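Lab notes, practical 5.
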Amino acid sequence: MKVETPTIYKTAFNCPHCSALTTQNWYAVFVTLIGEKRRTPSLPDEELIERITNSKEIPQNVKKDLVLEYNRILTGAPFFKKSEESSYNPPKVNNCFISSCYNCKELTVWIHDKMVYPSDKLMVLPNGDMPPVVKQLFNEARDIVEKSPKGAAALLRLGIQHLCKELGEGGKNIDKDIASLVQKGLNPMVQQALDVVRVVGNESVHPGEIDLNDNKDIAVQLFSLVNLICDQMITHPKSVEELYSCLPKKKLEGIKARDSKKN
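Output from the prediction step:
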């Protein structure tokens, strides 16, 4: 799976909201001074929304738009507000940019060349066939890897243990589980790589435990290894099976008959 890391220098990358590799539209940011009456930002609350909803003085169409807008504000996420107003030459906020995803329409906020919303995630996406329990641990590790690579590495080792269970192994002795998967088709080089990052072998770390020797490089390698195991043990066999099922039935029966004669 091709991954394009989000950056201000691209017009297409994997969206940090929906993960789709798609077009991003870019916007400069302009501002309007908050009026003298209020002078500070004003945010709605649930009580205000309830008052508006129950008001008999506000026209129904206006009420609907207000409630919709205020509920969006309460999510805490930035969004575009349609407006018919136009200000003459509003001041531009330098070093602040907005990108909008073509797929999910969500906004990403950038200061200079750094993503500030949503919080920066490592753009290593989980294999599409990854079991749900493993994917949950994988994504939790993505959420924290920038601030806590040791915590992310612990989650990923735990994810590998759960992945072994999902692949039919015992899940109690990860060394034996990986050795068994090698016998079933896992590339031995993956086993060697797991030894290097202390998932298996004499220096292995118990799944889920924090290891003070872990760092971001090890965590990044663990992300790749979880995906590799999924690819080799789930995605590849699934693709072969799907291809095989599309072949003409009579041809397959003929091949089976031919091969049985050879044996």
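Observations recorded by the TA: Residues 30 and 90 are 6 Å apart (CA to CA). The two ends are 40 Å apart (CA to CA).
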